[in-house]
Automatic annotation (TrEMBL):
Main location: cytoplasm
Signal peptide residue numbers: none
HAMAP family associated with the record: MetA_acyltransf
Annotated protein name in UniProt: Homoserine O-acetyltransferase
A GO term for molecular function: homoserine O-succinyltransferase activity
SUPFAM superfamilies: Class I glutamine amidotransferase-like
Subcellular location, record wording: Cytoplasm
Family affiliation: Belongs to the MetA family.
Domain of life where this protein originates: Bacteria
EC number of the protein: 2.3.1.31
Alphabetized NCBIfam families for the sequence: metA
Annotated organism of origin: Coprobacter tertius
């Protein structure tokens, strides 16, 4: 997929070294087509890493996509240079009157805090509500999935006795749903979280459909509004070394952390990870873009409302 993103964004040169076709905004302006407009609300602390991971997965279909990066205006990130934020990120007020074909809302390192005590919770609630009338389909990832299910449907989250950390086997509950086109009967997804949502709470809400789950890591994908919303508890977007980085970071800080499950060759960090999720991650994002964004969005994007 030719991605229309700022030429100076760090992800551009990195992804080109991976033979991923990234079209910067100067090239895209020469194409006489309407690109899909995707906005990414990036709540992760390492924003450049998260941008790169998501852009990598959005690059896998032949459609042109225009990316806007959004931040929570009431929160100042500590792990990303302010120059990067000023150059590439927008505040919500700058896009409030815009419409988008798709939206991705990332996880955030606030899962052990009550939703109402998160410093940008009020703004997040406004953005969640705005997305329902200004976006064709939205992916809520990890904490955002839990937060969205709580905000819209009252689904609670629960603290885990220890971190759900590793790469886990998942199954599909509805193989006819287009989001799973090309999926195997079993597939793997990374998880890294201290809280969970539970199957019994999802099944109580008639407007929610549990699409995928895992015996080890529980609920994975929940769909609402016919695919206008997907709530995804894992991190299919993770690059091969993300769990390794998290593991070594926590060890270095002296935090209680187990070896990530089903991740390292022979459970030996010195041998590196075995990547089991890359193929299905690409299918997940390309299926979402194709079947729930491109095929559902109106040609005049203003008609989303």
């Amino acid at each position: 997929m030719p991605l229309n993103i700022p030429a100076e964004l760090p992800a551009v040169e990195l992804l080109k070294t991976e033979n991923i076709f990234v079209m910067d905004d100067r090239q895209a302006s020469a194409q006489d087509i309407r690109p899909l407009r995707i906005v990414i609300l990036n709540l992760m602390p390492l924003k450049i890493t998260t941008e790169t991971d998501l852009i990598r997965l959005l690059s896998n279909t032949p459609l042109q996509v225009e990316i806007d990066l959004l931040k929570a205006s009431e929160h100042t990130p500590k792990n990303t240079p302010i120059e990067h934020m000023l150059a590439f990120y927008k505040d919500f007020d700058e896009i409030r009157d815009e419409t988008y074909d798709g939206m991705i809302i990332t996880g955030a390192p606030v899962e052990l805090i009550a939703y109402e005590e998160v410093d940008y919770w009020k703004e997040i609630e406004v953005i969640f509500d705005w997305a329902r009338s200004h976006v064709t389909s939205t992916l809520y990832i990890c904490w955002a999935a839990q937060a969205g299910l709580y905000h819209f449907y009252g689904v609670p989250k629960y603290s885990l006795p220890k971190k759900m950390f590793g790469v886990f086997r998942h199954t599909v509950n509805d193989s006819q749903n287009p989001i799973f086109r090309g999926f195997d009967d079993e597939f793997y997804v990374p998880h890294s979280r201290h809280t969970e949502i539970r199957k019994e709470d999802i099944l109580k809400v008639k407007d929610l459909t549990l699409l995928s789950e895992s015996e080890e890591s529980g609920v994975y994908i929940v769909m609402a509004r016919g695919g206008r919303e997907f709530f995804i508890t894992g991190h299919s977007e993770y690059s091969p070394l993300t769990l390794d980085t998290e593991y070594r970071r926590d060890l270095g800080k002296g935090l209680p952390i187990d070896l990530p499950r089903n991740y390292y060759l022979d459970d030996d960090p010195g041998k590196g990870p075995i990547v089991k999720w890359r193929g299905h991650a690409n299918l997940l994002f390309s299926n979402w873009l194709n079947y729930f964004v491109y095929q559902q969005t109106p040609y005049d994007i203003r008609d989303i409302r």
